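Example S7 (structure tokens).
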């Protein structure tokens, strides 16, 4: 994540995501998920849990079933959002990785005070309207690097959650977790931006427990 602006809040751009999903998933730990609300207020939420989905050969990946209307964003350029509905009730937020045409992405499972991907999107007002949009300020939803790196010794790798159908792929250690208590900077809010652009979510932040627990939503 190379600096191109303020040292502590640098927007992560497409080249960072144009890499294998497992590398991106690991490197997103400690980064900020940034949301701009309808009133222009911006909040930052430190990412502490991710999952990698590697491509069509990964049987836990949506792309293994081929291109569909639902997963089309996953086949697009790196650095775009892939958002889908799970169990008819939970929006799942993913960032597309790797080269165009390869269905790979990273699921954001935990950020700020929110544990579980469905809780992240519900609390931050994220839904299908972001699907296919570039992760930048125009979308009102983007990622920023952090001046604080997460040491390897603090990162746990485990099998992914809720993908038992994928056979041997269900056991691959492609879930990356760091205890949020070990991240030195908490969620933060910054003043209203002068000129909000593009679609923005309506934030209805909720407080969830800080402990990491295995959640299927």
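Recovered sequence:
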């Amino acid at each position: 994540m190379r600096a191109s602006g303020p040292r502590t809040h640098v927007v992560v751009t497409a080249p960072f995501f144009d890499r294998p999903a497992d590398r991106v998933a690991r490197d997103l730990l400690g980064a900020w998920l940034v949301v701009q609300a309808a009133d222009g207020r911006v909040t930052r939420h430190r990412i502490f849990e991710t999952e990698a989905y590697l491509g069509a050969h990964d049987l836990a990946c949506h792309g293994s079933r081929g291109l569909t209307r639902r997963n089309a964003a996953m086949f697009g350029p790196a650095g775009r959002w892939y958002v889908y509905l799970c169990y008819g009730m939970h929006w799942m937020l993913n960032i597309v990785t790797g080269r165009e045409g390869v269905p790979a992405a990273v699921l954001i499972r935990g950020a700020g005070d929110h544990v579980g991907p469905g809780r992240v999107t519900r609390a931050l007002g994220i839904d299908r309207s972001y699907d296919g949009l570039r992760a930048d300020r125009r979308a009102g939803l983007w990622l920023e690097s952090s001046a604080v790196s997460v040491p390897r010794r603090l990162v746990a790798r485990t099998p992914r959650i809720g993908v038992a159908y994928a056979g041997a792929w269900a056991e691959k250690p492609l879930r990356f977790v760091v205890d949020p208590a070990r991240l030195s900077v908490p969620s933060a809010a910054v003043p209203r931006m002068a000129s909000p652009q593009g679609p923005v979510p309506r934030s209805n932040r909720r407080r969830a427990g800080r402990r990491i627990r295995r959640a299927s939503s």
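Notes on this example. The CA atoms of residues 44 and 188 lie 5 Å apart.
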